[in-house]
Amino acid sequence: MKKTYAILIFLLASTFLLAQNKHLTYIGDIYSISLKQATNKKSETHYSVEKGYHHILIFKDEKAIMFRQDSISESVDSVPKTLSDYKFLSLYDRKSGSVKYISARYNEKNDRVYSYEEEFRTWQKITPDKKPDLTGTDEEWIKSLYQHFDSLPKWEAPIYQYSDSVKTIHGFSCKNVHVRNGKREYNVWYTEEINYNWCFDDYLFLISGTVIYIEYENKPYLEFVNIEDLDYDQLPLNIKIVKKVLRKWNK
Question: Residues 86, 73: contact at Cβ < 8 Å?
Answer without folding.
Answer: yes
